[in-house]
Amino acid sequence: MTMPSETFECVVVGTGPAGMIAALALASRGVRTALVGPAPNMNDSRTTALMAASKDFLENIGIWAALEADFTALEKMRLIDGTTRLIRARETTFDAHELKLPAFGYNILNKNLNRGLEKLIGENCDVTFIEGSVTSVRSSPTEATLTLAGGQTLAAKLVVGADGRKSLVREAAGIDVDTWAYKQSALVMNLSHDLPHYNVSTEFHRETGPFTLVPLPGRESALVCVEAPDVAERLSRLDDETLARELEDIAHSVLGKFKVVSERQVYPMSGLKAKRLSGNRSVLVGEAAHAFPPIGAQGLNLSLRDIAVIADLAGKAKAHHQDPGGDDVLASYERQRWSDINSRTNAVDLLNRSLLTSALPIQVLRSIGLYTASTLGPVRRLLMREGIAPTFLLPRLMRRTAPTANSRA
């Protein structure tokens, strides 16, 4: 533990993947950073899929090589209309090689990601990990002061709130949120299967929501099954063999026989969006700023775009002997992130609601859209690129031509 009243250039609050990556990204830009929160979760068997632009970002801040071995490439994305409605869309498969990419993204078990990030934090001399919880954040014209549960205080020019949906950093900054809920729950687990997945992510669009199988190493896949809350709870209480059989039926045995290989978890589907992204010498990243259903692998990828922007702004401020928590930096962060967060939140909400509606015009539009995507090359490539990341909003640190981790300017 550090001594009371230690001063840092930045304090990141939250030790999930977003918080740890934020601390490493700031350190890569030469910003001396403290990371505050509980010990990282090493028992989380859920998975995270990072898109190609997020992989480029991790390369640019110098940490991809240490994590790469635990990722499984997602080379193709297969969309299947699993509804029984009158108008059904044709099956569509997107191939990353059409974009001259080795993969759309890369999937990893959260416990492996957390383990790798914790090791990198421990090896980085510009990051100090302080295990504990923050009880208050106050700001003055020159710095922010954070008080921890044990009475220890930390001072910093900038605070990054990566402390989740119930963010104390957000509350301390007086930032309100919009929240909403769906009459759905996500049943999450990992499965083994008889047939190889060939690095293809398969998603069935169903009346209750998506049923998605995302590749893991070997003949295993992560499952996100969105159902009505009572159905999700019923499935979660089945014995392993009965549950595997029901899930295999839903998947039409595309991967052969299933076997449950992890605990099951059920999450009510809901969304959150902060009405502002900064204040009180603080900026919000990740689920402190935005949270939505696990659809389209958007969650952590959107969070990494938040992190790329604030790391770049803070690094530039330090290089030019300016205040990394000053009003101009906070305003620039707000301006650069607002459009992306709004558009992605609305897109995920629209996609989810389009699956739930039985309105015939919406069914027709979905069918036409997928037919167009499957038959017209330029449209396919545009959709694939924008699915990975919104090109016109991609932060500088996420581009392939971004400066290396050793660059401080």
Q: Provide the gyration radius in Å.
A: 21 Å
Report on the biggest sheet.
Answer: 9 strands, mixed
Shape: globular
What's the helix count?
Answer: 11
Uncertain runs are 357-366, 404-409
- Structure class: alpha+beta
Q: Separation of termini?
A: 31 Å
Query: Helical percent range?
Result: 25-40%
* Number of E strands: 20
Percent of residues in β-strands:
25-35%
Q: What's the pLDDT, averaged over the residues?
A: 87
Polypeptide structure, described:
It is a single chain. The protein is α+β, with helices and mostly antiparallel strands. Helix content is 35%, strand content 30%. The protein has eleven helices and 20 strands. The protein has helices at residues 17-28, 52-60, 64-67, 110-123, 168-172, 229-236, 240-250, 299-319, 327-356, 360-375, 377-388; strands at residues 6-13, 33-37, 47-51, 72-74, 76-81, 92-95, 105-109, 127-131, 134-139, 144-148, 153-161, 177-193, 200-206, 209-216, 220-227, 258-260, 265-274, 278-279, 282-284, 290-291. Strands 5, 6, 12, 13, 14, 15, 16, 17 and 20 form a nine-stranded mixed β-sheet that branches. Strand 9 (134-139) and strand 10 (144-148) form a beta hairpin. The longest helix is centred in the last third of the chain and has 30 residues, at 327-356. It is globular. The two termini are 31 Å apart. Mean pLDDT is 87; it is low at 357-366 and 404-409.
Please sum up the structure shown.
With 409 residues, the protein is of the alpha+beta class. 35% of the residues lie in helices and 30% in strands. Strand 14 (209-216) and strand 15 form a beta hairpin.
